[in-house]
Amino acid sequence: MSDERILVGDIGGTHARFAIARKGGTQWIIDHRSDIETEASHFEDVLHGYLDKLDASERPTAAAIAVAGPVADGKVSFTNRNWQLSEDEFTKQGFQRALLINDFAALAFAAAQAQPHELFTLGPDIPGMADEPISILGAGTGFGVSCLARYRGRSVPIATEGGHIGFAPANEKEIALLRNLAGRFGRVSVERILSGPGIENVFAALHEIAGSKPSQLEASVIVDQARAGEPIAADAVAMFCGVYGAVAGDIALAHGARGGVFIAGGIAQKIKDILSTSEFRARFESKGRMSDFVRAIPTRIILDDNATFIGAAIASLEIEHGK
User: What pLDDT digit, counting tens, does each position of 21-30 carry?
Assistant: First the structure.
């Protein structure tokens, strides 16, 4: 039923976020949000701790949990902790319906229904093509990628490991970056650059290339230094933005994302002003013979902090209704 309450979650390697989602007219309402940084040994303890705070009348009968990892056969195992979740475990806890979904796949559903005030446009404010695929990508602790395949009114989310595609340098500075990072990591994926740790990798690499000793700085500090005009920090953030745009354009080509490219994650939200004046959009469009194709694709940052919750709830209802 469209007015039912759904337990929604956003579970990663270090966080567990819960809320109750319900439809209010054409909008989703998110209540009782709880953001938990936890080292608990068992997911059930964290879940029960949240549910115990709710009144009996507020207890949902359905659960839709977005997870930072691949879901297979309704199960997920987390790389950075010993938690293992399954949809069956939720039904055993009394939920009538349960869904585990990759977090970027959930974001795909939310992006498709996002309102203009929930988005920040990078580049020209152009409409995406209705009923065409959309791409969702974003730099955070890692680099997530998903696609919402749309065709004649039907939508199918596709979770991917696109953050681990290989980095393709486009100029001499990026070739030098690749050589430096390859010396540290061997194979260099885009996630080695497009993530919080990636900003730190780029900053350290540029120092080493310049023959100076890098300071051990967190990504947020590097961004602050870039805003203040520190040269290597500014170069690192500029390179991050350029690579971000280039990769976003490559993914748009791979997905045929004529419906639009949506950028998720806290990093993009925090540096949207830098991204908007950077080479992001120029690099996005710089695709040789396919430049006209990507030039017609809008690029937008998702601003809504509840987008993952909303996407999980939408997915739960769509699967229930067989859409």
Answer: 998 877 899 9
